[in-house]
Amino acid sequence: MSHLPSLRQLEFLVALVEEQHFGRAAEKCNVSQSALSTALKELEQNLGVHLAERTKRSVTITPLGNALADRARRILLDTRAFVDFASANSRFLAGDLKLGVISTVGPYLLPGLMPHLRKKFPELRLFIKEGMTSDLLLALQNGYLDAVLLALPFEIGDLAYETLFEDGYKLAVGPDHPLAKLKHADGADLEGTRMMLLEKGHCLQQHALSAFTPIGPVQDSSFEATSLSTLVGMVAEGLGTTLLPDIAIKAGLTDKYDLHLVDVDKALPRKITLTWRKSSPRGEELKQLGEFIKQIYKGQET
Q1: What does 56-115 look like in DSSP terms, one character per residue?
Q2: Which domains does the chain have, with CATH numbers?
Q3: pTM here?
């Protein structure tokens, strides 16, 4: 008779399927490679199946291994929800909360927000993971994160969210740029303007390009930045133009640079949201957290 697998074995299986490498899977689970390999062999023996085909240089997950990993992922997610449900019903906004945040929001929102969160919810311990929207949403859906701060529009599937505020843009140009003479700009003013933007994978790249309809700027394909700081530095050197989100400007991103910031009229803003799984037992808590963040940000604006 087969014994029930341990949650740790299921975690090892999911990690191996996601990483496709024993070493990286072991590192992800904070165990030695030999410990992970031994545990998975024991799981295979217990179940009487092959989960992976091993060679000295590679690992190939069997079709059954992939199918079982999908089931294991759901079991782990339900187990985390079981623990979260107990925590959520014992203390409100207390304990550990794993929060993902995109890099075009986190550095400009969190520093001003954290002191208020600590004062309002002293028992809440936030663990922050910064990344790109698609990666953070995958981590959220797989149960590695409790919530994500991101910007819409973006396809988020069947997830719950609370809109916190709208984030508009300003056109950033060097003081000698022809567009610097403008006080306001719209899509017609910027039609065909080649703008330096973030590299692919950052949702702000697409948001900036779609901020004006039906006409507006295009991306300068010769340059893609990894951060807003890089974009600001390049524009300050007179190498091009860009659109910067208001949240970053308000946080002081451009303060030490000689830039001209032009108001952009009728640009479609992005919506900053707090997003979580509809099945999360902490859904009501997260909604209240979103309301609190909304109030704090509104207060900082006035």
Answers
A1: SS-EEE-HHHHHHHHHHHHHHHHHHHHHHHHHHTTSTT-EEEEEEEETTTHHHHHHHHHH
A2: 7-86 (1.10.10.10), 95-158+274-301 (3.40.190.10), 169-268 (3.40.190.10)
A3: 0.70
